[in-house]
Specification:
Number of helices: 13
CATH topology: Rossmann fold
Largest sheet: 7 strands, parallel
Low-confidence stretches: 1-80
CATH class: Alpha Beta
Distance between the termini: 64 Å
CATH superfamily: NAD(P)-binding Rossmann-like Domain
Strand order of the largest sheet: 3-2-1-4-5-6-11
Mean pLDDT: 83
Number of domains: 1
Shape: globular
Length: 385
């Protein structure tokens, strides 16, 4: 019986040719031959990644299919030695989604700050990001091929009060981790924010000048500069108004839904406009981004610009709750300490050009409904502002 063998070609050719003599077999093999990514993101692995299982559902499947290379249905390709991906901030909403999805192709090490999460196939280690020496030692010890840094001090008003801590978490430690990652040959990705812009016009592109209005935005912008200064292949992503199911802390969507479920009215601003970003879609896009050869800044935000109030109304209608519970107010009525950009919506056209899916608000909300019922959600005590 003849043994069939795959011969993987060089990254330059982007093809592979099985050693079969039959033309019919060659034609059949060409339909399932895995192509190889080029550039720094894939040079170490020599192949494309498979981030999602065949059972993956939801609108973010477009991200999966965009970078899931075809595999032979009989003998799917598997890496001979699984590389490590380090997720800094793995207990947060985005970090947990990235860790779970990446565990299908990597040995994933993820950090947590307080409560240790439980995600199958993910090794969790404690870390306070502001402890720079501990963070640097973790990178050296785990020797990852990629570092995805989602950890941050997100509370905008708290950043105004605790500036030293905010700077250390969002900028100082970010730069240290990026430099150590570069030293060991790892690629570093930093998750930033739309709050690096002043919000005077909205629909910001990557090349637009960043002018943050608050200290949180200043620290995140400094983190961006530090990440990109460490290596030309490092990446920065900017999402906006991240939402999704999270059992550890409330985000905007789960805050709206849990209050409305209890019949409580909520004040929601009409003059803060963003691009609501579904966390599951963002995680898939981040992993897709790691396969691209070029570094730089990429906006990975939702497909539409809308006010917080409009987004809240869409959520309530989709979950058959009373939309009148979302009371429209102006941001000036809330007496916030730190100013917020009035329109920090982002355009993700650059990501689309690289076939990275951008999920609309309606798609993200529909996916939340598919994932679990609102009745099954037990709200945590904390709210992530």
């Amino acid at each position: 019986m003849r043994t069939r063998t795959w011969r993987r070609s060089s990254a330059r050719s982007g093809t592979c040719s099985p050693r079969w003599r039959s033309r019919r077999r060659r034609r059949r093999a060409s339909t399932s031959c895995p192509t190889r990514s080029t550039g720094a993101a894939s040079a170490s692995s020599g192949s494309g990644r498979r981030w999602a299982s065949s059972k993956a559902s939801g609108p973010w499947r477009r991200s999966f299919t965009a970078f899931n290379r075809s595999r032979s249905p009989r003998r799917p390709w598997k890496p001979s030695a699984m590389e490590t991906l380090l997720v800094v901030g793995g207990s947060g909403l985005v970090g947990a989604k990235v860790a779970s999805l990446a565990s299908k192709a990597f040995h994933v090490v993820a950090t947590y700050r307080e409560t240790k999460p439980k995600i199958a196939g993910v090794e969790f280690v404690p870390l306070h990001k502001e402890r720079v020496e501990d963070a640097m030692a973790l990178v050296r010890r785990t020797k990852p091929a990629f570092v995805v840094d989602t950890a941050a001090m997100h509370n905008v008003d708290r950043c105004e009060d605790e500036r030293e801590l905010a700077w250390q978490v969002n900028a100082g430690s970010t730069g240290a981790i990026a430099r150590v990652a570069t030293d060991i040959g790892a690629r570093y990705l930093f998750v930033s924010t739309d709050f690096v812009f002043d919000g005077q016009r909205g629909q910001y592109r990557e090349e637009d000048v960043a002018r943050p209005l608050n200290y949180y935005g200043e620290t995140k912008l400094a983190g961006e500069h530090a990440a990109l200064a460490a290596s030309a292949v490092n990446l920065v992503t900017r999402p906006s108004v991240i939402y999704g199911w999270d059992d550890t802390r409330l985000n905007f969507a789960t805050w709206v839904l849990t209050n409305a479920r209890e019949g409580k009215s909520i004040n929601v601003v009409t003059d803060w406009i963003g691009s609501p970003t579904f966390a599951d879609g963002l995680a898939a896009a981040i992993l897709r981004l790691l396969e691209l050869p070029d570094g730089g800044v990429y906006h990975l935000a939702g497909a539409e610009a809308m006010s917080r109030h409009e987004f809240a109304v869409r959520l309530l209608k989709a979950f058959a709750l009373d939309p009148s519970l979302a009371k429209p107010v102006r941001s000036a009525d809330l007496n916030m300490k730190a100013p917020r950009p009035p329109n920090s919506s982002l355009t993700s056209a650059k990501a689309k050009r690289h076939r990275i899916a951008v999920v609309s608000a309606d798609e993200g909300i529909a996916a939340m409904k598919e994932q679990r019922s609102l009745d099954s959600f037990v709200p945590p005590a904390r709210f992530k502002s």
